[in-house]
């Protein structure tokens, strides 16, 4: 909707109505104002009905028993008020949305990212979080030969452990299909985070938007919690 145009049309109609009554009160010729009011009325009615469906059957202009003009200017001014406040309704009256508290992300993520975040280096914060997870995963598995997505793939693989290749397992009965599904999901989430988020953070230039970076840290926090709760099997 073109709210500025709508407001202009309603305000112009309100001004015409005021001029009409001013001229009528001094017994002047108000025929020109009357004509302009009737020309403007169809658009004004369409606007008011759009703003308030209850206006569907209402009329703005009419004639009394002496053929005098009646003007429902209060509805017009009400429409002007609606248009003036609509933008604020969107923000002021919206339900409170949940917010992400970065200091409650997994410590592997926030402890690594917070210094960069404080200085508004958001891409570096994401990269630091990914690097921290990689380091903790290497330490948990006792492996230094792999890193990042490849390490996640080896760690969360559903293959049996091999010499020098321990695995991570989601807690629970490993024969339970629900646990197996979570295992596959953890693998895909971890690899996806490193491929889609860590690699661009490490190799691309330009700063990330704060909200985008926060969402990426939240993703890595989920990855960190999954890895942290997994059991090492050898």
Give the helices and strands, then pairings:
Blueprint: H1 3-25, H2 31-51, E1 61-63, E2 69-71, H3 73-92, H4 107-118, H5 122-141, H6 148-156, E3 167-169, H7 177-203, H8 210-229, E4 231-233
Antiparallel strand pairs: 1-2, 3-4
Helix pairs in contact: 1-2, 1-3, 2-3, 4-5, 4-8, 5-6, 5-7, 5-8, 6-7, 7-8
Protein model, in words:
This protein has 234 residues and is mostly helical. 65% of the residues lie in helices and 5% in strands. It has helices at 3-25, 31-51, 73-92, 107-118, 122-141, 148-156, 177-203, 210-229; strands spanning 61-63, 69-71, 167-169, 231-233. The strands form two sheets. The protein has a two-stranded antiparallel sheet with strand order 1-2. The protein has a two-stranded antiparallel sheet with strand order 3-4. β1 (61-63) and β2 form a beta hairpin. α4 packs antiparallel against α5 (122-141), α5 packs across α6 and α6 (148-156) runs antiparallel to α7. The chain is rod-shaped. It starts with a helix and ends with a strand.
Poorly predicted residue ranges = none
- Principal-axis shape equals rod-shaped
Percent helix among the residues?
55-70%
What order do the strands of the largest sheet run in, or round the barrel if closed? 1-2
Order of helices and strands: HHEEHHHHEHHE
Taking all residues together, what is the mean pLDDT? Answer: 91
Main beta sheet: strand number and arrangement?
2 strands, antiparallel
How far apart are the first and last residues' alpha carbons, in Å?
64 Å
Which structural class best describes the helix and strand composition?
mainly alpha
Radius of gyration (Å): 33 Å
Content of β-strand: 5-15%
Number of helices: 8
Task: Please give the number of β-strands.
Answer: 4
């Amino acid at each position: 909707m073109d709210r500025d145009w709508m407001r202009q049309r309603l305000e112009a109609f309100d001004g015409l109505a005021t001029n009409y009554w001013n001229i009528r009160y001094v017994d002047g010729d108000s025929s020109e104002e009357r004509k302009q009011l009737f020309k403007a009325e169809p658009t004004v009615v369409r606007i008011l009905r759009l703003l308030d469906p209850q206006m569907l059957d209402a009329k703005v202009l009419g004639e009394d028993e002496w053929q005098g003009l009646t003007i429902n200017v209060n509805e017009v001014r009400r429409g002007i008020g609606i248009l003036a406040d609509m933008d604020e309704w969107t923000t002021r009256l919206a339900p409170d949305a949940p917010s992400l508290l970065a200091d409650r992300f997994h410590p592997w993520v926030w402890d690594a990212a917070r210094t960069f975040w404080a200085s508004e280096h958001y891409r570096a914060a994401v990269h630091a979080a990914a690097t921290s997870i990689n380091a903790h995963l290497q330490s948990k598995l006792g492996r230094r030969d792999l890193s990042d997505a490849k390490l996640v793939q080896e760690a969360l693989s559903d293959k049996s452990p091999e010499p020098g290749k321990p695995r991570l397992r989601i807690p629970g009965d490993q024969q339970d299909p629900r646990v197996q599904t979570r295992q596959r999901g953890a693998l895909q989430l971890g690899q996806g985070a490193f491929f889609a988020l860590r690699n661009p953070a490490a190799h691309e230039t330009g700063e990330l938007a704060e909200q985008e970076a926060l969402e990426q840290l939240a993703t890595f926090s989920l990855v960190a919690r999954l890895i942290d709760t997994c059991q090492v099997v050898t």
